[in-house]
Amino acid sequence: MLIALMARDKAGALQTRLDNREAHIAYIKETGVVAQAGPLLDDNGEMCGSLVILDVDDMAAAQAWAAADPYAKAGLFETATLTHWNRVIG
User: Fold this and answer.
1) Is residue 71 in some structural domain?
2) Using an 8 Å Cβ cutoff, are 87 and 6 in contact?
3) Is residue 90 domain-resident?
4) Rounded CA gap, 90 and 79, in Å?
């Protein structure tokens, strides 16, 4: 099941993102459930959020993954949603 995690950073939290980026990327690699991922960018090209496509068994697994993400643990996100996603192209 594909689940899209869409998260927006808190205002002024770029340093929090940068401080936790290495741990976040390591978490993505070690968990093995991320199909696609990358930062959202603002009008200036600065990172301001995340889009992560999870390939998991169910929504509970997606929720557990999102809660254990180093970005979430660092309090980076203003908002974060998990939504079922259907790949049509790609």
Assistant:
1) yes
2) no
3) no
4) 27
